[in-house]
Design goal:
single chain, alpha/beta, Rossmann fold, GMP Synthetase, Chain A, domain 3, four-stranded antiparallel β-sheet, globular, binds 5'-O-[hydroxy(phenylacetyl)phosphoryl]adenosine
C-alpha cells in the first residue's frame, strides 16, 4: 500500500476525546473510576464482599494509582456467578445479552443496558473511523452475528458512523465474494483467518479482490502475526488494521490501530489498561511497559457489567509515546497470544503466533496451519501441520517439512515435527481459527 495520507490519519470520529490532553484524561478517568467502583459496590454483592474484605470503600479512591489496590476479576468469577450474578442492574433493565461459546463448562454471559449499547456503538464507530472507514462507506461485515460480540458490535458501530452496513456474518464464502464486488464494499470486517479464506475462494473463482473497491480491513478477534498481515494485504489489496476487544469488557471496539499501524489505540476515556506479571500479579510500572505482560482492563463507563481489573490472559506490551496520528491514548501492541495458549516445549515458552510468523510467507507453503500438541511421557511434543501451495509436487513434501522444522528450530527455538499436507486439507475457519489441537488430556 502507498504512503499514509493526511486524510487517513486526520479522521477522528470524536476529536475532543481521542486527542484529549493527558492531564484532562487523568481527571476524567478518576471521576469515572469512582463512579464505576460505586456502581460495583452498591449493586454487585460479590464485588462488595471482596472490597469489604480488603477494607476498601469506593470513596477511598484518591488517584488512579490506587487502582493497584483493587482486587482482580477473572473469567472464573463470571462462570461462578452464572448467569447474571455479576450484573449491576436487574435483568429487566438490560437491553441485550451476549455469551461466549464456553468450550469448557458454562459460557460466560455479559449484559448491556441501552446506554451501554449506545457507548459500544460510539466506541465502535470511533474504531472504524480510526481504521480508515468513513461515513458513506459500504462496510461488508463478515464477523459472526449471534452470541459472539463481533457481528453486532461492528454492525451498530458502522451504522453509528453513518456507513452502509452489509450484515453478512460468516459462511457462504462464494456469496461473500460476489457481494463484496457487486456492492463495492470499501471496508471488510472479519477475523484475519476468515479474510484469508475469502481471498482463497475469490482466487479459486478467478476474482481478483485487489481490483475490488476494498481499501480497509478491520481484522481481529484472534491473534495474527505481521507475516499474516502482509499476506492479507498482498492478496486482497487493502490496508489490514488490527482491532481488539473482548466480550467481558464490551466486545470489539476496545482498541484499534490507526493507519500508522504501530499499536492499537486503547480508548482510555472508557477503559483503564494495566500490564501485570502473569505469574505474580504484580503491576508493571510505566517504565517496564516495554516488557511483555498480561493486559488487565477496568471499565470506566459500563452500567450493567462494571469490570474491575479484569485479567484478560492476553499477553502484550504498552506504548505511551504519542502516535503520529495525534491521538493521545495509550497504544496496546500486537497481542502475542493468550496465556492459556502458551505451549511449553522442553522448557521453552511458545505462542502459536510465533510459529505462524515463520510459516506464513515461506514460498512453497500456503498460510494455513494447525499445531497438534501431544504428550510423550513428561514432555510436550508439537506437530506442525501446514499446507503446500497447489503448484508443489507431493514428492517434495518431506524435504520441505525438514526445511521448515529447521527454520522453526532456529527462529523459535523448539523442535517440532512438521507435516506438509495437500492444499485444502487444513480446515478453514469462518470465525476464530482453531490453531491448536491439544491432545495432551486425552493421553495421545
Ligand atoms: O473476540 C471481540 C472482538 C470481535 C474483537 C471482533 C475484535 C473483533 P471474545 O470472543 O470475548 O471477543 O474474545 C476475546 O479474543 O481476549 C483475545 O484473546 C482475542 N482477541 C480479540 N481481538 C484480538 C486481536 C472478541 N486483535 C479474546 N489480536 C481476547 C489478538 C485478539 N487476539
Amino acid at each position: 500500500m502507498g504512503a499514509i495520507t493526511a486524510n487517513e490519519i486526520g479522521g477522528y470520529f470524536d476529536a475532543a476525546a481521542e486527542t484529549m490532553p493527558r492531564e484532562q484524561l487523568a481527571e476524567l478517568q478518576l471521576n469515572r473510576l469512582r463512579d464505576t467502583l460505586r456502581n460495583a459496590y452498591d449493586n454487585v454483592p460479590m464485588q462488595r464482599t471482596r472490597l469489604d474484605a480488603l477494607g476498601i470503600a469506593p470513596d477511598d479512591l484518591c488517584s488512579i494509582d490506587d487502582l493497584k489496590h483493587l482486587p482482580f476479576t477473572v473469567k472464573a468469577d463470571l462462570r461462578d456467578h452464572y448467569p447474571f450474578g455479576m450484573f449491576a442492574r436487574p435483568i429487566d433493565k438490560l437491553a441485550r445479552l451476549h455469551a461466549s461459546s464456553g468450550t469448557t463448562g458454562k459460557p460466560t454471559v455479559v449484559g448491556y443496558t441501552q446506554a451501554d449499547l449506545d457507548t459500544w456503538a460510539l466506541l465502535m464507530a470511533r474504531t472504524l473511523m480510526c481504521a480508515g472507514a468513513r461515513p458513506g462507506d459500504v462496510v461488508h461485515n463478515a464477523y459472526g452475528y449471534g452470541l459472539f460480540t463481533g457481528g453486532l458490535g461492528a454492525h451498530y458501530g458502522a451504522e453509528r458512523l453513518g456507513a452502509v452496513v452489509v450484515p453478512m456474518s460468516g459462511g457462504s464464502t462464494e456469496r461473500q465474494v460476489a457481494l463484496i464486488m457487486d456492492f463495492r464494499a470499501r471496508v471488510l470486517c472479519a477475523t484475519p483467518s476468515y479474510a484469508l479464506a475469502i481471498a482463497e475462494v475469490a482466487e479459486a473463482q478467478g476474482v481478483d479482490l485487489r481490483k475490488s473497491a476494498l481499501q480497509v480491513g478491520l481484522f481481529g478477534a484472534e491473534p495474527w502475526s505481521q507475516a499474516m498481515r502482509a499476506e492479507i494485504e498482498a492478496r486482497i489489496g487493502l490496508k489490514a488494521i488490527d482491532n481488539y476487544g473482548l466480550s467481558e469488557v464490551m466486545g470489539p471496539g476496545v482498541a484499534c490501530e490507526c493507519p500508522c499501524q504501530n499499536g492499537l489505540h486503547g480508548w482510555e476515556d472508557h477503559f483503564l489498561f494495566e500490564l501485570i506479571d502473569p505469574e505474580t500479579g504484580a503491576v508493571r510500572g510505566q517504565d517496564d511497559d516495554s516488557e511483555a505482560g498480561e493486559l488487565v482492563i477496568t471499565t470506566l463507563s459500563k452500567q450493567a457489567l462494571p469490570m474491575i481489573r479484569y485479567r484478560t490472559r492476553d499477553i502484550t506490551r504498552l506504548e505511551r509515546a504519542r502516535c503520529d496520528c495525534g491521538r493521545t491514548h495509550v497504544r496496546i501492541l500486537r497481542i502475542t497470544g493468550r496465556n492459556d495458549d502458551m505451549l511449553i516445549v522442553r522448557g521453552v515458552n511458545v505462542y502459536p503466533s510465533q510459529i505462524e510468523a515463520v510459516l506464513v510467507g515461506l514460498p512453497r507453503l500456503a498460510p494455513h496451519y494447525q499445531l497438534v500438541v501431544r504428550r510423550d511421557g513428561k514432555l510436550d511434543r508439537v506437530e506442525v501441520e501446514v499446507e503446500a501451495q497447489p503448484a508443489v509436487a507431493a514428492d517434495n513434501y518431506a524435504a520441505i517439512a525438514r526445511e521448515v522444522a529447521h527454520h522453526i528450530k532456529s527462529l523459535v527455538g523448539i523442535s517440532t515435527e512438521v507435516i506438509v499436507k495437500a492444499p485444502g486439507e487444513i480446515p478453514r475457519s469462518m470465525g476464530k481459527a482453531v490453531r491448536v489441537r491439544d491432545l495432551r488430556e486425552k493421553g495421545a
